[in-house]
Amino acid sequence: MQVKLTNRQQHILWATVRHYIATAEPVGSKTLIEEFDLGVSSATIRNVMVVLEKSGLLYQPHTSAGRIPSDSGYRIYVDKLMKPSETLAREVESTFQQRLHWEDWSLEALLQGAAQILATLSGCITLITMPQSQTAQLRHLQLVQVETGKIMLIVVTDGYETHSRLMELFPESADTKLDPEAIDRELQIVSNFLNTHLRGCTLLELSQLDWSKLDQEFQRYGEFLKSSLTELLHRASTPSTTQIMIRGVGEVLRQPEFSQVQQVQTIMHLLEEEQEQLWRLICEEPEVEETGKSKVTVRIGAENPLEPIQTCSLISSTYRRGSQPVGSVGVLGPTRLDYENAIAVVAAAADYLSEAFSHTA
């Protein structure tokens, strides 16, 4: 809905949203006069609030109460009236640098630490997805003979996630006597060759390689490698319910918006039992700014396609390795959210994780 507001209407909408975010109390003209230097009379503020209500940007929860922002009111506030806190963004970046050490930590420890810091700073439920395996880079590949004629392909990603595939090497040679020691030597040579040339490739890139380019003496491994990597890719690209790290649930559920037990139960069910739906939502790739960074996506109330969080706001962005998105970071809270701060901390967290992943080999 396109709503054109005058400067005065924008200012009064801004003040109404700011007061309600801070207090969770409906706002009247007298309160705005006392708290904000609006430069107009109480009667003028009342008239403007009536116009904003007719435009669908404010509403009265009760007949005798003041007004509170609607989802549309928050949308105009986020898009046109607020500016993310640059000061907080710098503080978040500094906090990450002081408390997280991606050079020394494992991937899981890094993401757990980032999720906890983000939950503390935002006061929201924090959601950080584990890196998607399709975009994870190859750290090590090994071919191992487990018994005569059967070998295992083991792939270790840069996040130390391991995938393996067992397969019969030469089914057409079942009656042919194979030399296990010769096979071991060949497998080691092929493993060394592949590690030298493929380290840093993604699983998706591995599946698209032309295995016919292998040296002639190793051609017989080509079909095995191609089929094995295709299956590993399919397995790795299937979303898992363990892919989202969640922190800060207890704090946000103490907000007055979550006073009804039924509402809390539906949100908890989504977080615990329906993570695949949530994963698909926050992993939708946002637009990319000219700087190459991912934009922050803000979904307010009914803009969320998942019913359990249609009274919430979800703010998310992607973290990247270079230009390649590998995962998402987000916060979930009531629509009465301090958007300036929430957007700033999500952007800072995504930038930090992108830097960390871009420096991992």
TrEMBL record:
User: Where's the Heat-inducible transcription repressor HrcA C-terminal domain?
Assistant: 108-343
Which Gene3D superfamilies did the record assign?
A: 3.30.450.40, Heat-inducible transcription repressor hrca homolog, domain 3 (3.30.390.60), Winged helix-like DNA-binding domain superfamily/Winged helix DNA-binding domain (1.10.10.10)
Q: What's the superkingdom here? A: Bacteria
Asked if the keyword Transcription regulation belongs to this entry, the reply reads: yes
Q: Which SUPFAM superfamilies match?
A: GAF domain-like, Winged helix' DNA-binding domain
Q: Say if the entry is tagged with keyword Calcium.
A: no
What keywords tag this UniProt record? Repressor, Stress response, Transcription, Transcription regulation
Question: Which family is this protein grouped under?
Answer: Belongs to the HrcA family.
The protein depicted here goes by the name Heat-inducible transcription repressor HrcA
